[in-house]
Each structure stands twice: as structure tokens, then as C-alpha cells.
Design a protein that fits this description.
The structure is a homodimer.
Chain A: H1 8-29, H2 34-51, E1 59-63, H3 71-87, E2 92-94, H4 108-111, H5 114-129, E3 134-142, E4 165-173, E5 176-182, E6 188-189, E7 192-193, E8 206-208, E9 229-231, E10 234-240, H6 260-266, E11 271-276, H7 284-299, E12 303-307, E13 309-312, E14 315-318, E15 322-324, E16 330-333, E17 340-344, H8 365-368, H9 382-400, E18 404-408, H10 413-426, E19 431-435, H11 443-456, E20 459-462, H12 466-477, H13 479-483, H14 496-516, E21 518-520, H15 526-531, H16 552-565, H17 579-583, H18 602-605, H19 609-622, H20 626-631, H21 636-639, H22 644-667, H23 701-709
Parallel strand pairs in A: 1-2, 2-3, 10-11, 11-12, 18-19, 18-21, 19-20
Antiparallel strand pairs in A: 1-17, 3-4, 4-5, 5-8, 6-7, 9-10, 12-15, 13-14, 15-16
């Protein structure tokens, strides 16, 4: 296919379709009603007429928000979209990876294989209802004979090896399953853990329908001609998520020996379609765009990419499904962080696509062409960060069945940003702020909390904690005497008295949450998690930690961004966050310095957050060691003169605190993953708690020599 | 080699060696001193003389307890053992998988690649110090050129693909690295996650030393002759952990297409040596023994298996390194749950081995020949459970740098069993019991706690919590008024008032822990975790949850076992646990039934634990669904008549509570993994929190039909 100038008819369609598509999506998302059904019906007729007959390559991308294991909910959504596509007379509709089961199912399908049986029942029922519009539906395919007890299935000879399931796509049409595509490349790193449950297939493209439930056999090995599937006169190459991500020209270090896209492209399909559940992370949009553009250009083939939307616990998927033409140009793109029925046509070869070219989150478009460098102070990601956090909060509450949130509102930066996110995600009527001052809480903090609550239109209540912490203190007073010196005297460095304030606050929130069916939300940020500057069962406790992957400097930048870009209202004509909240030094407000009489700030206790955040970035993005960090020049040092001794001391503090913080990561609530190169979220990073004896600065040859020449000595 | 009758000289050695070996291990474990060095020297000379010259196949298994990332500590231990083996004139010494880095390193080596550089430095320094005794030392081998920045290494052409590291073994001897063995099979399921960081090699056996740091090349593909390594005249086949576990005759469903042991065995080595870090789980000892016996018999080859000992967070390794002769008979076995320097000779083909034949934990030997059936009421595992829990506690405290523990001692079963474990693991002087009665705590419970503390010789202090919970209640009292009906009235089913008791107790423990550098320990058991019958930030909170994988009925059985098998002392002449603790109904002692005036028991609120535990067992071991559970006859039903309606109601309660409990699993402290077929420990099982809409009973065809024929309706 070559690039062509669109005919006037298509030019007209290019203008009209986005408007129709917007109406269609509004109708699909509205609560069902008679009026709604009529609108949908009229709209569908108009669009169908404009698009013309089947066989022209018009298709839909069903960018849906699934929940793992919610077969009825996912299937209903899939069926709604299929029926719509059928009514529109489209050639096909493609859904994201594992759309029926919901991605990622994690280990649930291993422990509860009945769910896989159930997903086959739903799949077959959906297949029966398909007509001329083909549907590409992701599902979990068992690799062994199915039945009541998968384990006792008769074993074929030679024995089939491998995990029990394929991560698969069924091609449904004309009332039946027409073929099956199986994921080849099984990502197992960072937030991906496919290899725990899924076996990768060795062959790209389509397996016949009668292969369902049977593993690849060695006899299948040369079936290249069968790699494509013909749908209404066009042959498509179909692949699943990671299969797209192994190009040897694009990646410096490809992860897999085999490249399924190369296999498909060699068959010269009309287009390659990829069904994904690809998480969004900072700087990933750039890589995704460049990869898709590279592949379509490299093979001179249109590329269609349909991506899941929605958040599953810690992992966010951003949608933004898209089409690239054979010249590598982006011709259509769905919305980010929103469900969408997207009408496209990859075969027209247009420079401007059909239907939507939805904008990326604010600021992100500029990064697509930016050089691939790292920058600790990058602010172009704040729009995506905001939308990603909103989706994460919204989906966590909706999918766990809660509407209301509450949090401690201290007047500090983290809780202020968190409450704005909660109000925007859940509605201000569903958010309760609780001010829980102690004797040392400054009036200005309480006033800031009230101003913010007023700006947002949320309810704020106050519960002083002085009496509570006093009774704890009273309860413990007699203990040294009862212990009778048995364990010596109390640790002078104990921070028990500070922590009890944080825990008392979390306890009040949890009780209120119990009483009003609301989830308490943790406010700890990424810098605090790295530094262990968070109280177990206290401020880091809650149902969700929205800022747990946002470093403090980025929280502050996000606060400024909110004041600038969040829509102003009558209530908040000047920006929602009081300036004092953004500018005042961060601190836990847990103790007073006896010499100054002032509250001790976090940076006094630890180090400047700007410096700490650069360490985090250098560890995660550049994998730099403590030794390297000591010798490289920090961006921080450009603006702040830094004595090498001070730098070394801060580095020691950082690594020492990080090693002890690992326990806190282990018991942290879900953290919404935001950053590009790492996080401490449990779905993303695993670090043994007992790995506490790592010598972060490494060992010198002399130290190694000393240990090995005195092996019998005590450690 | 054929089975031979040992000569009188060997018979003598068989008698003498176990005694020497015991002395040797005592000396190796004692704190270093002049006297100790002299003993060791004398002993070594005697043993060396008895064993005779090198080249006879005498070797040591270095069953050590490593810590992930503790290169200096692990290297010191390795060097001590190598020096001892050299002094004894042994042919070789084999250490467990990844002995130098410590297994499992998890993602730490990905985020901090300097640790891999460091492990190479240590490896090379150890190599230099080796003499005629060869050492097999597990280490992390980078697959790309090493240097300051692994990422920027020049990429070879064609591109090398795959993960950055091999899980490898270096064969060290005569001052250098003699060869490298790379793990072929990369386990990624349950507690294993090797595929996140490690690439599997395709070739079994030994790579030349100059291959270090370079990935397999396609040109290596036919190097079968190089699969073995010659050490003092004997050719050995060396493999790593999972490489042993893929026999197509033994396993109904082998996980991998390739069997490295078959490759090695085809070269007819003198013996196969496997370096493992193989976790212990209920019923696994049976499988391990049968597999090793099967393989050595199948190939008529001696099999040497060296296994790591010690616990890493949730995962316990039990040692029990061993030798099987070519007839599949066990001829030597190291201790379980203890470090050991084990002298063996797999080449003698003796029926009785040399050195140790250490017993398995009490009761476990009988299971080796038991039929492979499941039994929910199996008690043969209690000895192993006890030792596994002790090791888990001891290692968690030692490796995180703590000596002291404290816990709430309620007089209930879970805290009673936990405190015995703590006292046995850490010493009674390091354990503090805290009784924290509320107004509804019965005097009998307080008395039981005191009796138990006296029996154990631990300190018990009392802190009533009535005032604390009262101030919380006071603090909240004004809230409904302040909320002004905004969120309606309080949820009548709220258990806030119950939970605050549990949280207040945990808070007191945490404060005391802070003040005395002691770790608070959680007491929740596996049944409670499954049923969500545990309070977040309350009883399920702590540094460690020792009983988190022990179901309630097994806790009770363990309590009886403790009274029977724990050594009696002057203080506890009759069994440490008061009978009333074992027999009284379990409950959280958090509320009183207003109609009876009695404390509400857990079984009244939930269901009989015997029934719940059988559900857990059937889910984990048999993967039975709710529908299947409803139709199968429970063992519970043999003894208790059960109405189908009641059974259905309990099943509904169980699955409903389980789905909501997933959040609690996510924020639980480390749980010591004990059971064989599953747990809810985070290292073992991943379940999305938002997978809350799973229809555990499945859908009928009519339900499916209804949803799909009304797709546009609201869910």
C-alpha cells in the first residue's frame, strides 16, 4: 500500500467521524435507558452509512477497563462493544490482552483453575453471538485437556512440558472460534510476572480453532503460511503485547532470541495488530511511540495497537490505543486513562487518521521527540502523573466497592496534594479530612488545612490527639519499673513518643473508616519510603498510598502544577493549594527541637530532599552504586556547593536508612506506580528484608584480603 | 561402579568418622579462640590420616546459612570451610546454590549491579586461595562484559539476548577458576522468581573458565564431551537446583522441555553433584527423597545433593544435604535446620554412608515411604514445623540485627504457641510477654498468660487498655455531630470498637519495642488470614508472623506436640502450655454477646475451624472450586453431621471473607512458609486486591446467557 491523497469522501469522513465517535462514546458510557438505546441506534445507522460496506478495513479498538476475574463484568463490556461494532458494519473489533479474564490475573488462575474453565464457557458463549464482525478477545487458554480436574488429565506422549496456560487471543466470528493466537514472549521483570502462570508459544500468528486447549506439537513447527488470518479479504498479523517489544534494531539488549513481529511481517499482512496491556510509566510513552513508529516504518506495514485502560492495584494502564501508517506516522490515537470505542482504518494509509486523535496528557506530547536522556527535574510528566493518580484512586475504590475516602489533613504538602487527588477522583462529597492536632501542631498548619478543605468543598473535622497519646504514655509509664532492669534502660534514640502520634492518627482514621464505610488513605511519598521516614501503622498505613512512587520534589512540582492547571472554580479562583503549603519546609510535625523551640523539619533530620531524590533517580535509572554516586557530580551540586565530607555523610545516611526501610516497603499498602525506572512497590521490586548486611560502599581489595586470610575469625 | 562390601578399614572409618565429624562441626561453630584453633588442627590431622590420600573421592558438603548480599559474611564462611577441606586433604567441597551472593538475591542484583561486580571480586580472591581441594562455589555471573556501567557494554553481533545474569557455579582449584556451570532451568512459580533476573543456559555441565562473563554462543552447541569436569581422576556432572527437578518419568507434568540430568548422565560421570537452595515445605521431603532415589537408580549413578540451610524472610531452607548410591539408596544425610560440614564419599558405593546420617525432624522419616496422598489431619509434619518456625524466627532476628522480641500474651492459643516458639528460638531472657486486658478480658485468660510466662521463664508485664480505648472513643464521640449527617449514620455492622482494642495493643507493643530495641511479633494464624479474621495494624501487625502459614487446627496440634515433645525442665515438669489454653474455644476476646453475656468465640462468628481448614487444604492442595467443594464429602462430615444448607452457607462465608481478606495479605508482615501446597505469603502467592468481583461459585449457562443477551444493561 502506498500513501495516497484522500478522496473528498474520506476527507468528509475525517471531519465527521470524530464528532460521531464522541457521541457514540458518550452513549456507550451513559447509564442504560430507552432514550439512550434510541440515540445509540440512530447514531449507529448514520455512522454505518458513512463507512459503507464491510471489507474496507474499518475496525474498532475496544479500549476497555477490565477487572481481573470479573468474567461477567468483562464479558458484558466486550459483548456491548462487539454488538456495537456489528451494528456499525465493521470488519473487526480488537480488545486488549486477556480482556475476558482481566490482566494481570496473577496467581489466581493457578490456585483457582475453575476460573479458567469459566473463562472458556464465556468465550464460547460470546463466540456464538458474533456475526460478520470478527472479534479478537484475549483469554486464558489451558494447555492441557480441560475437565473437572485439570491435574488428572491423560498425559500425552511424549510428555507435554511447561506451565498450564497460554496467554491467548481468540478470533471470533460467524458464531464460532475461527482461530487462536498465543503470546510468544513472556515478560517476567518489574511489574510483569507472566512466567509464573503462562508458557510462551514458539510460533507467531494464528493456530486453528481445533488447537484450543492443546499445546503446540513439534509437528506444528513449519506452518509459516498459517501465520496470518483473513478477515473480509485482508490478511492480518496478530500479536500480543510483549511480542511487539523485541526488535533487535530498536533495543540495545533484546530480552528474547525470537522476534514474532519479524515472522509476521515476513508474510506481508495488510497490517499488524497488537493486543496489549501495557502499563504507563514515566518516559515510557516516548519509548512506546518510537518503537511503534520504528516497526511500522521498518516493515512498511500499518501497525494497530490496542491497549487496556484502568488500574489494577499498583499497576496503571493508560489506553491511548493507536494506529501507525506504513511510513511510521501516527494516524489515530485513543484517549488516555479513559474507556473508548475507537473507529479506525489502518488500510487507508492516511496521514491523518480517522476518528479520534486524542491528546496525550498535558505536556507529554513534547516528550515524544525529546532526546532520550534522563533528567531528575523533568516536569513534562506531571499531567500524566496527575491523570494516572486519579485513575489509580478511582479504580481502586470502585473495584473494591468503596466510594468514600478519609485522610489526616495536617496542612503539610503530602496530605494537601493527596486530598486534592482524592477530591478530584472521588468527588469532594466523598472525601473527609481529619485534622488531628497535637500540642505541638502550629496554628498555621491547622489554618492551612481548613483553607484547603474550604477550597475543595470537603468536610473537615478536628480530633485533638493529646489525650490519646497521654493515655498511651501513662500506660507505659510503669513498665521500666515492672521490667525491673531486665532489659536495661530505654533506648535514648527511641522515637516511640513521636511514632505514637502518627499511629494514634491512623487509628482514628481507621475507626472512622469502619464506621462510615470509607477507606483511610496513606500520605507517605516515595522519598519518605526510601528513607524509612514513615511510621509503620501510622502515616504510611491506609488502604492505598497514592504518592508512594512520587518523590518529594515531584510532589512539590505537582502541587504547583495543580494550582496552575487544575480548573479554577468559584470557590477556588486562585489555585486550590495555599501558597504556604507549597513553600513551607516538609516535616512530620512530630517533635520540637529543644534548643530552638521550633518543629524539626525533615531536611534537618535527614538531608535536602533535592539531594535524596537525585540519589533515588540515579539508583533507579542509572543503577549507580554508592561509590559511583560519591564520585559523580550531582545536578544538585550545580546549584548548591557541597563539601565532599557532607556528601559522603548524606550518602551513608541514605543507604543506611534505605537498608532498614525495606521492612516498611514490605508492609506498605498498594503504591500507585508512576516512575519510569523503578519503584519500591511490591508488584515492581522485591528486596529481601534480611539482606541487611549489604556493604553498600563495596569492599576494597585490602578488606577482601583481610577477611579471606582470617576466615576463622568472628564476623 | 558396583556395590561392594566395605573392607575392615572402611568399616572402621564408618564408625569413627561420625564422631570426628561431630567434633569438627562443634569446633567450626564455636567462637574462634586459640584453644579452638588447636583442637581444629589436631582433629583435622586425625581425620586426614584416616581418609588417606587425595583422589579417592572424599569430599565435603558445605551446608551453610548465607544472607543475601552479605558478601563478606558469606565469603568468610566459604573460606573457612574451604581451608578446612584443604587441611583434610579432600578432593573437593561443594556449597549450595549462589552461596557467595546468598539465595535468593531477588531484584537487588538488578537494581544494584555493583553487587554482582563485588561478587566477582570476592570469587576471584577466593579462587586465588584454593589449593588442591576444588571448591564449587555458587555466584552470580554477568552475561555481558563487566565494567563500571554494565548497560553501556559494547553489544556483540548478532545481539546477545536475555537477562543480565546466569545463576552459576564456579569450580575453583589450584589458585584459579577451572570452569563454570550455569543453571539451565529457571524456576518461576510459588516462592521462586529466578526468571526475573536470570537467564537459563541451554547447555548442561561445565563451561571453560574463559567463558566467564560471556553468554553462550551458538558455536558452543555441540560440546557434550565437555559436560563433565575431572577432579583428582574422577569425572563429575555438576548441576544446579531446579536442573534436578525435571525427570519425565518422575513428574506427571515436567515444566521444561530439556532435562540437564539426562545430558550429564549420558556422559557416565562418577557421580552427579547438585548444588541447591531448595525450600522446605510440608510433604516436600517425601518428594525430594523419592526424586533423588529415583534418579540415582534410573541412571545407576551416585547422586550428591548439597542444600542451603537457613531462612530468608518467608522462605526456609532445611539443609539435610545427602548422598544416594547408584542403587538409589540413601547413604549419608546432613542435619536439618543446622549448618554443617559434611564429609562424604559417593564413590565407595556403600550401603551405609560415611560420616553423618542425621535424623530428619521428628516424625518425618515415616512419611518417606508413605503413599503420596493428602491428608488434612496429618500430624507427622509437626516436628519439621517446629524446627522450621524456630529457624525462621532465629534467622529473621539475627539477620536483621535484633535479639529481643515482645508480644501480646492474651492467654489464647495463638499467642501461647508463638511465645513458646520465641522463647525457644531467642532464649526466654529475650522475650517479653505483655498482657493487655480490657474490661471484658476474663481473669482466667490473664491467669493462663501468667502460668505460661512462669513456665517459660519469660517476663510478663501488664498494661490495661481500658483508658486508651476510652480516649479513642471520647475522641470520636463528637464526630457524628461534626459530620452533621453528611455521611449518614454510622454503619451498624462496624467493628471499629472491637478493632481499636487490637490496634491499641499493637501500638503499645510497637512503642515498647522502640524503647527496648525489641521486635513486636504478630500472632495471627493461617486460618485467620484466610478468613480476614485479623485486625490491620492490630494483632496481624508486627515484624514477623510466625504462624501465618499454620492453620488453626495445626496450631492446636502443635500445642499438644509441644507439651509432649519439648524437653521438660524443672520449671515445666508437665508440659509448658496450660491445658486450658489448648482446649478453650478460640476467639479474639474483643466482644461480648449481649444475649448470653459470654465472649463471642471465633467459631460462633465464622464456622468451625476444622471445616475452614479443610476448605483451605482443598483449595491449595486440590485446587477445588466452591462448586466442587459443595459437592464433595468433607473429612469433617465423617464426624459431624452437616446439613447441605449449612455447608453452603459456610462456603459462601468463607469465599466472601477470603476475597475481602486479600488486602490484609498484602500488608501482612513476613509469614514463615510452612505448608506444602500454598500459602498467602507474599513471596508465594500473588492475588490482585481489586479482583473482588470474582464469582466464586461460577456462572450457570442461564446466567451467562442473560448477561450476554443484555449487554447494554448496567452491571
Amino acid at each position: 500500500m502506498t500513501r495516497s491523497t484522500p478522496s473528498p469522501q474520506w476527507q468528509n469522513l475525517q471531519t465527521q467521524l470524530p464528532l460521531w465517535e464522541a457521541q457514540l462514546n458518550t452513549a456507550l458510557q451513559a447509564p442504560p435507558s430507552q432514550a439512550h438505546a434510541a440515540t445509540l441506534s440512530d447514531l449507529t445507522k448514520s455512522i454505518r452509512q458513512a463507512l459503507g460496506d464491510r471489507g474496507q478495513g474499518f475496525m474498532a479498538l475496544g479500549q476497555i477497563n477490565t477487572s481481573p476475574g470479573d468474567l461477567a463484568g468483562n464479558a458484558r463490556q466486550i459483548m456491548t462493544y462487539i454488538d456495537t461494532a456489528e451494528a456499525l458494519g465493521l470488519d473487526l473489533i480488537a480488545f486488549p490482552e486477556l480482556a475476558l479474564m482481566g490482566y494481570p490475573p496473577r496467581d489466581v488462575i493457578g490456585r483457582h483453575p475453575f476460573l479458567v474453565e469459566e473463562n472458556l464457557k464465556w468465550l464460547q458463549a460470546i463466540a456464538k453471538r458474533t456475526g460478520q464482525t470478527y472479534a479478537l478477545v484475549g483469554f486464558v487458554e489451558p494447555r492441557y485437556q480441560t475437565g473437572d480436574d485439570i491435574k488428572s488429565a491423560t498425559t500425552p506422549s511424549p510428555k507435554t512440558t511447561g506451565k498450564a496456560y497460554y496467554n491467548a487471543v481468540a478470533i471470533l466470528g460467524n458464531g464460532q472460534i475461527q482461530g487462536i493466537v498465543r503470546k510468544n514472549l513472556i515478560p517476567t521483570y518489574a511489574e510483569f510476572e507472566d512466567a509464573r502462570q503462562f508458557e510462551g508459544a514458539h510460533q507467531a500468528g494464528v493456530f486453528p480453532a481445533n488447537a484450543l486447549g492443546k499445546p503446540e506439537s513439534p509437528n506444528d513447527s513449519n506452518r509459516a503460511a498459517a501465520n496470518l488470518i483473513d478477515i473480509h479479504g485482508h490478511r492480518y498479523g496478530i500479536s500480543i503485547c510483549e511480542d511487539l517489544w523485541n526488535d533487535a534494531d530498536f533495543f540495545e539488549k533484546p530480552l528474547y532470541a525470537h522476534d514474532p513481529i519479524a515472522t509476521l511481517a515476513a508474510q506481508r499482512p495488510a497490517a499488524i495488530i497488537n493486543l496489549s496491556a501495557s502499563p504507563t510509566r514515566s518516559r515510557k510513552e516516548q519509548m512506546k511511540h518510537n518503537l511503534c513508529s520504528h516497526l511500522s516504518r521498518k516493515y512498511s506495514l500499518p501497525l494497530v495497537y490496542v491497549n487496556q485502560v484502568g488500574t489494577v492495584d499498583e499497576i496503571a494502564f493508560d489506553g491511548a490505543s493507536r494506529v501507525y501508517n506504513a511510513q511510521g506516522e501516527l494516524t489515530a490515537r485513543g484517549k488516555s486513562f479513559e474507556e473508548q470505542f475507537l473507529i479506525i482504518n489502518p488500510l487507508l494509509g492516511l496521514v491523518l487518521g480517522l476518528g479520534t486523535m486524542a491528546p496525550l496528557p498535558l505536556g507529554l506530547e513534547a516528550t515524544l521527540s525529546a532526546p532520550k536522556t534522563f533528567n531528575a527535574y523533568d516536569t513534562s510528566d506531571l499531567g500524566r502523573t496527575y491523570e494516572c493518580l486519579l485513575q489509580g484512586i478511582r479504580d481502586y475504590f470502585r473495584k473494591t466497592g468503596f466510594q468514600r475516602a478519609l485522610l489526616g489533613l495536617s496542612g503539610g504538602l503530602d496530605s494537601a496534594v493527596t486530598v486534592v487527588l482524592l477530591a478530584d477522583a472521588l468527588g469532594p462529597e466523598n472525601v473527609l479530612g481529619v485534622s488531628m492536632p497535637s500540642e505541638i501542631t502550629p496554628d498555621s498548619s491547622r489554618q492551612d488545612a481548613q483553607t484547603l478543605a474550604d477550597n475543595l468543598g470537603i468536610t473537615l473535622v478536628e480530633i485533638p490527639i493529646g489525650q490519646i497519646t497521654q493515655t498511651f504514655s501513662d500506660g507505659l509509664q510503669t513498665i521500666p519499673q515492672k521490667l525491673n532492669g531486665h532489659w536495661g534502660t530505654q533506648d535514648a534514640r527511641s522515637n516511640a513518643a513521636d511514632n505514637v502520634q502518627a499511629i494514634s492518627r491512623a487509628t482514628l482514621l481507621r475507626q472512622l473508616g469502619n464506621e462510615y464505610r470509607a477507606l483511610p488513605v496513606a500520605t507517605s511519598d516515595k522519598s519518605e519510603f526510601y528513607l524509612g521516614y514513615a511510621t509503620v501503622n501510622g502515616d504510611m498505613s491506609g488502604a492505598l498510598a497514592p504518592l508512594g512512587d512520587v518523590p518529594k520534589t515531584k510532589v512539590r512540582a505537582l502541587a504547583r502544577w495543580l494550582n496552575e492547571h487544575r480548573p479554577l472554580t468559584v470557590k477556588t479562583p486562585k489555585g486550590v493549594l495555599p501558597e504556604s503549603v507549597i513553600t513551607k519546609p516538609s516535616g512530620a510535625d512530630l517533635k520540637v527541637d529543644p534548643t530552638t523551640g521550633q518543629l524539626v523539619t525533615a531536611e534537618q533530620e535527614l538531608m535536602p530532599y533535592e539531594f535524596a531524590d537525585e540519589i533515588i533517580w540515579r539508583i533507579e535509572a542509572l543503577q549507580q552504586s554508592q561509590t559511583t554516586l560519591h564520585s559523580v557530580r550531582f545536578q544538585y551540586e550545580e546549584n548548591h556547593p557541597l563539601d565532599p565530607t557532607q556528601k559522603a555523610a548524606w550518602l551513608d545516611t541514605f543507604f543506611g536508612r534505605m537498608a532498614r526501610a525495606v521492612f516498611k516497603w514490605f508492609v506498605a499498602p498498594p503504591i500507585l506506580i508512576i516512575e519510569g525506572n523503578g519503584s519500591i512497590a511490591k508488584s515492581d521490586y522485591h528486596h529481601p528484608i534480611v539482606a541487611g548486611r549489604i556493604q553498600w560502599a563495596g569492599h576494597t581489595p585490602a578488606e577482601i584480603e583481610h577477611v579471606l586470610s582470617n576466615p576463622f575469625s568472628s564476623p
